[in-house]
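Task 17 of the worksheet. Students: predict the tertiary structure of the chain below and write it out as structure tokens. Keep your answer in the requested format; marks are given for formatting as well as content.
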Amino acid sequence: MSTLKIHNIESAPEESKALLEKSKKAYGMIPNLHGVLAEAPGILDAYQRLHELFENSSFNNEELTVVWQTINVEHECHYCVPAHTGIANMMKVDSAITEALRHRKEMPTNKLQTLHETTLSIVKNRGNINQDELKEFFDAGFTQRQLLEIILGLSQKVISNYTNHIAETPVDDAFKKFEWDKEDVTTS
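Model answer:
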């Protein structure tokens, strides 16, 4: 079990206090992940900025969810899968998409399936995807901008997924009903 501290506003380093206030205002609480990241103000700031940048990318809510959850499931993040399930619900993403992602099932449209496969290939192959994969991505209607935005989303998820592995961050009460275990995944 990890012994990394989960900060609140009072216990956080001075440079993280305003960042935690920002989290509290945005979510109505301080997510445990943000409390862990607060120990190093730079990483909390980077995480919040990357989240905002990716959320304001050219992807719609379904596509954001596909990128986030594809990465979360591949990284086997016990914290982010339930958190992003709850976030997807708040974003009014069809639960069939979320459930398919949580269990690595086929996406309901070819376009979302292509986004899932491209994201997964970027993660598994550390960015080394082949020309056929790129052609399929572009043929599905995605753009060069969106290809690069997958990397933006991956940057955000590396911070959260890796931190949650190390910290064994407890799932927030708001997301406990969406708890997930890597054993829930059907291998494709």
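Marker's comment: The mean pLDDT is 95. The chain has one domain: 14-184.
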